[in-house]
Specification:
Number of strands: 0
Largest sheet: none
Helix content: over 70%
Radius of gyration: 20 Å
Structural class: mainly alpha
Shape: elongated
Length: 222
């Protein structure tokens, strides 16, 4: 069984796409941890200080610990919480809830008339019904390369967004406390917030692209 965002539920042993993203999430966690360490040690944000990212990497974060820590941190947020962070909505967060009323009409690749014929009736306007219909369409073409690729990218950046939010809270708090210079501490926190803003925006775009790609692929099916 699959959740409405296309992921496998936890009890099924994990989704292969999310497993493929694990290394990238480890690198995100390792880089942010090493960056915090470098700023704390140098009390500055500069290129010379960032050499600690490489020179001390082996001593600071063993690969096994970093991998486990990234999984644990990522598990602190539910998929629903990450969706809300990415799309800045607490209700009907997923773009599938607006698949036909908004996204289908915004993409010239999507033949809306073909989707109506496939559905056998007018397309739904209720957010819950839209997401259900989009999900049922997704299930029929989930293994197509184009769908899998954009889905994988969305899952990666959604999890990255979740990590970024935790970095702002935990790493930002540690930085403000442990970095001797208050100015440097505030600059470090600003960099974490900027990382969150950029990654969240990218994740939002990939999520919408995921919904559109599914509809475009289905509408073009013979």
């Amino acid at each position: 069984m699959t959740n409405t965002d296309g992921t496998k539920p936890a009890e099924s042993g994990g989704d292969p796409l999310k497993e493929q993203n694990r290394l990238q999430l480890w690198l995100v966690f390792a880089f942010n941890s090493l960056f915090l360490y470098a700023v704390m040690r140098e009390n500055a944000i500069r290129i010379e200080g960032l050499r600690a990212l490489f020179s001390d990497a082996g001593n600071l974060l063993p690969a096994g610990f970093a991998l486990v820590a990234s999984i644990v941190l990522n598990g602190l947020l539910t998929n629903e919480s990450k969706d809300s962070l990415v799309f800045l909505r607490w209700k009907y967060a997923l773009p599938g809830h607006r698949a036909f009323s908004e996204h289908a009409n915004a993409d010239p690749r999507i033949d809306v008339r073909a989707l109506r014929r496939l559905n056998g009736s007018e397309l739904p306007t209720d957010p819950t019904d839209q997401n259900r219909l989009w999900y049922s369409i997704y299930l029929t073409i989930q293994d197509r390369p184009a769908v899998r690729q954009v889905h994988k990218s969305f899952l990666l950046l959604r999890d990255y967004t979740g990590l970024c939010s935790l970095f702002v809270i935990f790493y930002g708090g540690v930085g403000l406390y442990a970095i001797p210079s208050a100015k440097v501490g505030c600059l470090y926190l600003a960099i974490l917030i900027l990382q969150f803003v950029i990654v969240r925006h990218a994740a939002c775009n990939y999520g919408i692209s995921f919904v559109k790609t599914v509809l475009a692929q289905k509408a073009a099916s013979p």
